[in-house]
Amino acid sequence: MERGIMPSRMRHRAERFGLALMAFLGIVVLVLDLLGWLDRFAAGGTIPKITLLVLSTVTVVLLLEVDRFQALDKLDTRLGLLDIEEKARKLKDKHYAGLVKVHPHLVDDIFIQYVRSAKKVTILNTWIPNLGPLLDALVAAVNRGAEVRILLLFPNSGVAKLRTAALLAGGVKKPDDRVKIGVQHCLAELANAREAIKERRRGCLRVKVYNTLPSISVYRADGHYLVGMFLHGQLAINLPQFEIDGANSVLAQRVQGELDTLWKIGQELDLDDWDNELDLIQR
Q1: Of 135, 131, 126, 119, whose CA–CA distance to 220 is shortest?
Q2: Entry pTM
Q3: 96-282 falls under which CATH superfamily?
Q4: Domain regions of the chain by residue span
Q5: Consecutive 10-residue averages of pLDDT for the chain (283 residues)
């Protein structure tokens, strides 16, 4: 702080000295004019006297206003010390609870962009219809040491049957066990993708199945959350996605609380033997 003040003071002193010198020269010019000596120094009167008088007057005015200029300079310095972005973020969290945007549907590229630099990634869904396009980004995240958690609905549960019925309510003919098939397909894809993960990093990819009613779908990468809804006749990823930014925001804390709850409820699967483990859970 002191380092910033000292150069500023020196600059103000230099400005004041320069203005004072110009004002003094202006007074000297007036005196020389009154004594009739100005014409001798001005090479036959080629320097307009009115110009000299105007310059002198302006300089005196500026000299009198130096203190006000200094006050403006101090105000500018104080504004520079304010963290405008931080205050804007706090206001955003206060008024919007962390909600920054609503997407018409889940955009894979947006989530992948967040995953590329994330240290913690979580996906919560009944099953992940868009898992294929995300696999490369998820594997790359695991290979660099990021923690990736996948939460899928237990395929043999009554909730899976209810969700399938809700999807069928849209009037489009679909398999009666669509959710079950979807979950099994995801587990098979994750098991295959695990082969591309470095052996020492394979523990960073963890998969659990839960047997409870999901309230929301969540695609999380660090402090970024894309949150969807489960409505009748439509997949959650095809519905509007609420993008929440900031792990400390009200909405992010609520969503993270739901993720933590389902992670505790869920039962972990060994991807190398997921088929048999599902049968064990059923029994």
Answers
A1: 119
A2: 0.69
A3: Endonuclease Chain A (3.30.870.10)
A4: 2-81, 96-282
A5: 54 61 64 64 53 59 56 63 63 71 96 97 97 97 97 95 87 74 97 95 97 95 96 94 90 94 96 92 74
